[in-house]
Amino acid sequence: MVTRSRSPFLLLFCLVIAVAGGIGCSKNQPKTTVAGSWTNPDLGGATFERIFVIGAGRDDEYRRLYEDSLVTALESEGVSAVASYEVLPQSTELTEAQIRDAVGAGDFDAVMVTSLLHVDEIVEEVPATTVKVPTGQVPYSAAGFYEFAYDTVHVPGYHNVYKRYNIEARLYRFSDGERVWWGLSETVNPDSVQEIINTVSVAMAKQLQGDGLVP
Known about the structure:
Elements: H1 8-27, E1 32-39, E2 50-56, H2 60-76, E3 80-83, H3 84-87, H4 96-105, E4 110-126, E5 129-139, E6 146-155, E7 158-173, E8 179-188, H5 193-210
Helix pairs in contact: 2-5
């Protein structure tokens, strides 16, 4: 008759690993992605080399942070870009006339406008599971062979709550005001506003380059 020698510590360790594995799958995914983009089919392969960047929003501080971040990201893709606050520093809503005057004076060929579209709360339900976990090694025979003893563990269901931020970007050709590109980013469970700003800027700039809007 074989007597099982149980190890409570090992059992607990395996249980923690099993539960953490379920949580980790979501958190290890990229936090910011481009959920969708569109390019005007009538563009005819035209590209834009000098972009006027506008971060539309109620908070002037975030506007400046985002514009600076997006300018840096665009410049890393080889585009010349300028933040709107450097030319139009007022915190009040910008008018079309003000924007046109500023863009024309700076010899820009496109205007990029970004804004927070919406914030959602995502609830991820993880169902209860039953797993087998090793409880230790026990002698199998007098010959010295060993086998693992296993026990059944029931892991209760749980749920994770995430925040999802969608930021919209629109690119307009200055010569006629035609919208030539649109992009939508998705950031899940960011650690800070700064993380949203930085990761969205990089994602949007790379998407513009990938879609052929910038050289």
